[in-house]
Design a protein that fits this description.
By secondary structure, this protein is an alpha/beta fold. It has 2 domains: about 10-180, Rossmann fold (3-Layer(aba) Sandwich), CATH 3.40.50; about 190-395, CoaB-like (Rossmann fold). Helices cover about 35% and strands about 25% of the residues.
Amino acid sequence: MAELNGKRLVLGITGGIAAYKAAELARLFVKDGADVHAVLTRSGAQFVTPATFQALTGKPAWSDLWDARMPDNMAHIDLSRGADAIVIAPASADFLAKLAHGLADDLLSTLCLARDCPLIVAPAMNRQMWDNPATRRNISQLLQDGVIVLGPASGDQACGETGMGRMLEAMELHDAVTGYFQPKVLAGRRVLLTAGPTFEALDPVRGLTNLSSGKMGFALARAVRDAGAEATLVCGPVVQPTPPGVARVDVLSAGEMRDAVLRHVRETDIFIAVAAVADYRPEQTAAQKIKKAAQPLILTLQPNPDILAEIAALPNPPFCVGFAAESENLDEYAQGKRTSKKLPLVVGNLMRHGLGGDDNTIVMFDNEGRHPLGPAPKIEIARGIVAHIGRMLTGNGRE
């Protein structure tokens, strides 16, 4: 999968220790099919060299406004023309101030001023510089001007302090930039998702659960966000990183997941139930650890609530999407789930194709029939599902 295939990106590097991350970001952009042109400020070149980016991108790296390699000495014009976006990472406090006030005293600031493409910045600076009123005013002005600001994050800083100002990691920036280019088919929608397994306690240390990794649900949360929606993700016990811009609610049991869903569902336009919710829970949970004995241990289980069925049966339900992970008879069971719960869409897959892995193969079932997708990475599958939901909503007139 090459989500940035054919995209022309100008990658700007300003002065800051986070400049080392820009090298990895350039590599990720190129790996994803982008045509990358690096432009370094004078300070940026003190931390990383133009030769590094020339090697990573296979293109000349630029830093001098008067570079004679550009035949007409118009690098500030030529580099931005035809670019799909300019990405500044890291964007120092000084460079953000230049952008906010329209200053153009070097190649990078000049081409930003002369651009006719989107500008994306990833701030990186000391926490006190980030909190300074001047920086806050500059960020506010850039947002008003339509500049896309990614981050910063909170964490350890090169100065030895901890706080806001740390540049996002290269993969986070890559994902955010690829997301920017996705069609906004769910713009203005509010989407509630569930992901991962649930854990039904037998005693303080043991419980009933399953092998769901949550990867499909988290990929869908990212795809929903990239499609312009406001995403809230209710997830069971998983170790997946939360996609930036997605609200996360952590739960443990099916009962906790149901309660969390009911708290958010009235503000929801679309409900996507990806979680592998345990069908049963122990009738009783022991207060202390159950000790091993020679005799068989007999457990009495009772059904858990069917969260998806309950939401779909509301008087004015959101657009509900169910998931059916099966070991056999996929079409029969998935269609049966869609019919019995009166769902507009069910996404089915055989467990051997997706459970716990990075790829998946699915079939979407709706009133028009079956729509296979994959095999492909889960983020690509997620984007396909979101695109299908967008088409269904438009086709049904649910604007």
